[in-house]
Amino acid sequence: MAREAGWQLASFTLNIPRAGLEFQPADLFNHFWSLCAEEQYYLLFPLLMMIVPARYLRVLFITMLLAGPLSRLLVFSTGYSAYTMEWAANNITVSCFDCFAAGSLLAWYFCYRTEKLTAWVHKPVTGIIILLIFGVFVLLKMDQEAGMLPNLFGRTATALFSCWLIAKVVLPAKKGWGQKLAEHPWVVYIGKISYGVYVFHHFMPWIVKQLGWYRPDFHFSILVYALLYALMTFSVASISWRLLEKPLMRLKNLFAYKVTV
Q: What is the pTM of this model?
């Protein structure tokens, strides 16, 4: 891995393109582009909360929701190679704003318009519309002739679908299968180790090849290796949770927290 990529990883700027929308390859660490976008947003979001009046927060989040697909449209209008434009449109921080904004809007409605959010989430027509939109973009993503449309709005559709699903579980009309599934001990545990799953999953195919275990020329090889990668990823993530993340989380007990209204 080039030294430049190392500096970009250390400074959480791997997803920021150079001239010509070119990105510095980071080999096994390429998936950390999303962590970089996330950390950049975490620096921006508190600043916005301090300077934007509370009455304008919803307008801010809606504006950011629109900024995501608009920024991707601008990238696709540059005329660079299809690969370069798709990579940039998916990875730069502004193009991720619709996902961050969707979660922020969900939190805003949960805090200040809980009854309205609950009623909206449990309307059958809401579920039908969101599932249709999400399904259409899933199909478009699988169609190689769909052009840039799924890249423009597919992430927005996924964000809205995810928020609707979360709200259905968090604000149930009654305790149904969705909430029971979300509260299942296995699901809760996967949530605990999910950061480790994200960090380590990209390394597993490389490790398997280095160990000489990669033998793709047999029936069901894709299924076998998918199961092997999953087993290895969850095992390493579980060890990381116990030995590293859980002890670090205990450090929070050393600090006093003050609730402000």
A: 0.83
